[in-house]
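Service request form, structural biology core

Requester: graduate student, group of Dr. S.
Request type: structure prediction, single chain
Budget code: on file
Notes: please return the result as structure tokens.

Sequence provided:
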Amino acid sequence: MTQTALPLPCTSRSGLFRPALPLLLSLALAACTSVPLPPWPAPGGAAKAPLPAAPAPATIPVTVAPPVVVIQPVPARPSGVVTPAEAPYSAAVAARFPAPSLIYSTPGLQEGRSSFTSNAEIQNWLRDLVAAAAATPALKAALLPIGRSQSGETLDALVLTRAAGTEAAAIAASGRPTVLLIGQQHGDEPAGSEALLVIARELTQGLLRPMLDRINVIIVPRANPDGSADNRRVTTGGLDMNRDHLLLNTPEAQALARLTRDYRPTVVVDAHEYTVVGRFLQKFGAVQKYDALLQYATTANIPEFLTKASEEWYRRPLVAALKSQGLSNEWYYTTSTDLTDKKISMGGTQPDTGRNVNGLKNTVSLLIETRGVGIGRLHIQRRVHTHVTAISSVLASTAQRASELRQLQPYIEKEIAGQACKDEAVVEAGPTPTQQELLMLDPITGADKALRVEWNSALALRKIKTRVRPCGYWLSASSKTAVERLRLHGVQVLRVTEPGSMLGDLYRETARSAGERQDVRGTISDAGQIVKAEVALVRGVIDAPTGSYYVPLNQPLANLAIAALEPDTQNSYFANRLIDNLTGSARVMAEPSLKTEELP
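Core staff response, request fulfilled:
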């Protein structure tokens, strides 16, 4: 039995066969709808005109060289039939997930291989793509070493653009929106990494390359190389790096923070996989059924128009693209490791994950999860196909909406900066408890199994704690670690050069206990003990000596600063000991007249 594949116009790597993606690209483009946002609110409350309509997808050219037919061998075993050793469920369940008609080829997807693409193979793959891109007029490609993992592995980002250069200044000057694609923050979730190798190849040599006429793309195929090498969710230090994007305790999260600070992406995609059996089978006697689970940023203080753009410009076309390929989808959800807890929760509302922190950086921040954790290489072609389909849709939506996105981000940043010293800031928010009918699969028959579950919705946040938005925050001279982390994010921090004073709210501790950071799954891996403090605000005069710091909130990243600096939340810099004591920070409640300087 053979499968015919049409390679794209490039030279194939020896021993590797390239997938044919013309159908995929056309479907991704067709899925880009023209649903406009509602009229934008003017400062006085009057409605502005809707954003201009996007150009038709047909204006994105696709040039394909005459195809060459290559025969790709396919195993004789019928699709969906697996041995008991391979599958934690019946053949009837496996049959619900037939392999796609396309065969994807990366080092880790070769027939007969037992391991996924190694870190060294990823580096070679990316270097080869950079070399190949040099032969394409006006296409710029560079491999950026953005940091090192805890075990010393190089963390690489591939930059693809038609700008004058690949450095951050040239990318910004291009005027094109930038998409950042991140794979495998969790080491035991390989499909996203393999898919990003495919996407990188198609952007440099294949049918996705015309997208670069309108957008820039940065790809980090594997953010946690140590975890991948060990097939572990966490980093070498035992920390879940996708809960470290506000605190930045791991070098891996720091590397991604520097990358987003310097290149300021408009869209960020985080490619993951989710648990298929495990606690779901134990709790509900059922198996997860959806090819993809999707969610955008859902944490406190996300601007309304960013959420609308995420939903209408991205998630809806993405759902259409998946459906066109026969791939099922649902909102992202999970359940705790406590087997007595039968609640189902959407992705968390805490400002600690990449999805939520990038939302606080005013990007369209999307999570894509395929069904993969706990099933090894089972259905790997379908899992990769799901990611490739979804990510291609995101790229196409960005290319189609390039002009609107150029308007959206400055509008949002100006709106956030203008809220300083007024309005309300949500210090802590939580999901809204409701009920939902959820479809899963019977582990024996493979039939749909409908469950009525308690459902924590992240789409409607409950305000748990609110405060008047300050003008800024004062930090003591001893808060160097906190200042360093804020600046890694791109938050503006000013140093006081002459002694001064300000009107502000001091934090007075009223209660304290020790605790652990929690997410919807339970205790966060190796996050350590935190300080759980209750505080009262006391109005007074703040003395600001030379060498202390001022963090103004009339800046685009004000909402991220609020998440870090209000002390009585589990993710705050105080709770996690990046700020030593409550006397080391205060809320500034009137515009100060301080003498300050920018930090070098």
